[in-house]
Amino acid sequence: MSVHLYCVLPDASRSAVPKGLHGLAGHGVRALPLPSSPLVAWVSEVERSLPVSIDGVREHDAVIDAALSTGDTPVPARYGQRFASDDECRAALAQRAASVSSLVDTLQGMVEMTLLFAPTSRRALRELEPELSVGAPDSGMGRRYLETLRDREMRRRGIAALASELAIEVTAAVGTLVKRSLEHTAVAELPLLTVSHLIRREAADDYRRRAEAVATGGDVRLLVIGPRAPYSFCTLAGGSAGTHGMKLAD
Question: Which listed residue, 38, 108, 152, 196, has the most CB atoms within 10 A of its CB?
């Protein structure tokens, strides 16, 4: 067995694990107090061979959502960080104790809101249309293929520009509520643009109203995701970027 780390919370006495909470592969979640510190980690004992999966990511996120529901803000660990024992998990956290403690303190009372700008279904379907009909080759097929690629790239750039313009408008609307922001680099055509904001927990409803009040339509739509734990703002001092949760080890 191994110890899977979900998150770190500021106080074991306040952030009790809800009775019956289960995490990866149905394993129970328990609190792991940290020595010489008020901080507490939430962990599960899981099989060493448990593979990475979409279900696992969802189960990991569900535990962190439960931690957020305690009223404190958890510092989520990047999915997949496992240790041979409780002592090894404690040692990894103790090695970065000052940075972990600072991050927990900084993020208290905060949540993450994410703006996702993507093509409308109408536009997405248009972009997915076949570039050329399958048929017998002819002397003009190569030219038509290149023209199709050029037109497709022009459409892609046009919709990306519209997404950027909408992002500027929405960011201006919520700007006074934002403490920190991060734009995520797209790894695929959909979504086109994702922006995460760190805000006060009590401002979440106001943030959503302001964002959704910005006129949308045409070829770009806006999705407002959150409030959720601040995954995008968990970089430890001197460590790798924590855009998917706190990373203690490679």
Answer: 196
Structure tokens at 219: 């070829």
The whole-angstrom distance between residue 194's C-alpha and the CA centroid of its chain comes to 10
Distances, alpha carbon 181 to alpha carbons 18, 190, 194, in Å: 31, 21, 11
Rounded mean pLDDT, 118-138: 55
Coil vs helix vs strand at 53: coil
- Contact assessment for residue 9 and residue 67, using Cβ atoms and an 8 Å cutoff: yes
Three-point CA angle 167, 172, 178, nearest 5°: 100
Q: Which of 186, 193, 185, 181 is nearest to 230 (CA)?
A: 181
Mean pLDDT of the chain: 84
CATH fold of 111-129+143-229 reads Alpha-Beta Plaits (3.30.70)
Decide: pTM greater than 0.90.
Answer: no
The pLDDT value recorded for residue 208 is: 97
Nearest alpha carbon to residue 101 among 246, 230, 249, 241 = 246
Cβ neighbours of residue 11 under 8 Å, at least 6 residues apart? Answer: 38, 39, 40, 72
Q: Which of residues 150 and 3 earns the better pLDDT score?
A: 3
Q: Taking the domains of the chain in order of start, what are their residue ranges?
A: 2-108, 111-129+143-229
Residue 112 to residue 228: CA distance in whole angstroms: 5
Say what the pLDDT of residue 131 is.
46
- Residue 28, classed as helix, strand or coil, is strand
Between residues 155 and 36, which one has the greater pLDDT?
36
> Which amino acid is present at 68?
L
